[in-house]
Predict the 3D structure of the following.
Amino acid sequence: MMLTCPNCGHSNQDHYNFCEKCGANLNVEDQPKTEVMNPVEENNNPDAGETEKNNIHTSTTTPEEVNGKQKKKSPFALIGLGLLGLFLVYILIANFVLAFSPVARLNKGLRDFYRGNKFTTESTVGLDYRGSNEILSLLDNLSFESVAYSDIDKMNAESSIRILYNGEELTGFKAGADSELVWIDPLKLYEGEFYYEFNNKVTDVINDIKIYKNALKKVALDCDKKEYSKIIKKALGRDLENSFGKVTITLDADNMLELLSELVEYAREDETLMKSVRKNGVTFLNTITKEGDKGKLETLYDADTFEDALELFEDEEYFEEKYDMFLSNIESELEDFVYELFTYTRKFEITFNYGLFNNLKDITCEFTANYGDYSGESLRMHCVSSVRKGAKLSSFNTKQAKDIEDLIDDPEQLMDIAKEMAENLTEAIKGNKELQNDLQKIEDALGMDIEDLPDELDRMFYYMW
């Protein structure tokens, strides 16, 4: 019996285990059953491999292409992408162009700030005592925080102050004023508010100030801005730093004196500025004179004074003489003014912070004032203040508050209020966890127990009245 090779079809003797011709295993029973493609069929279809490749490629086709409907991007999406691209390009250009010109960015910030009417100012003050007095060293733990709101148009202002000890609030109060009254809210010190109404004279002064302020809004001075920018850049030099999103100015006595001196000196020769001052001065004086003639100015107005001033501004030659004399006097007094300003501090660091479109976000001023510094003792006060546009002022209701004028006529009630506030302050001091460990030192220095503070204040008010 002959064995036929399953691979090549060659006839082999029955005792052969492997094909004599191709060497394939003849014991097919021991091999796993696999599907063998017909070589004849494969050879008869030479394009089968290519067709298989095409089928694989076709399997990745999207449903839209299979149906003959290739999906197109919406024109609105393309427009959106284009606008987004322009937006990003604008941001990059606005920031990088101004990054090479700190004075230009600074001027833009000043213009943005000048256009504002409402402002919010946040300030922090910390103390640093250096010396051997153990009690005064406790001042290092004391700090103050305040938030102030102002509305220049309505002449309203409001401020809240918090006193902290080691970062924990000790006490605080709020106060505000408008054209009619001033008010005080002692917060936790007393359950009640106080106010004092201005008399007619004060109200008239505030109304006059509003008229002057509105007249000043029309003033728009003209000058050679490029030259003044060069002076600022030259005088400040490396003390004017520009980075992405902010401009920082470091002012000390020397660079500030140089800056102001150069500006005043150039202003004396700036005919464009001089003519602009004269023109705007005439407009301002005429506006105030008209308001005064209508009887709208009650206190801050004298017809003869304004008439003389108007004559000065209208006489071009005489005004030029007075203009030069005025700036000359300022120039001669600059040195005293600057060094007086820097008596207690070495430098002021002012930072203009800008938003995405180089719009001014806020202005921050930071400085350290040094008091004393003799006999090995000194007290330093570190201040950081930031101002931004916008304000949220509170409304005040006099019906639920006490009139300070009435309290002055009632000393007994005034002393009761003072004693209650002292008791609440005592509780606040005793309740401050960080202050507990230092209370004994304070009591020894005062020579009395903190709990005796209300009685001491009571006796003080008694002798006052």
Q: What stands out?
A: The first strand starts at residue 2 and ends at 4. The chain is about 45% helix and 25% strand.
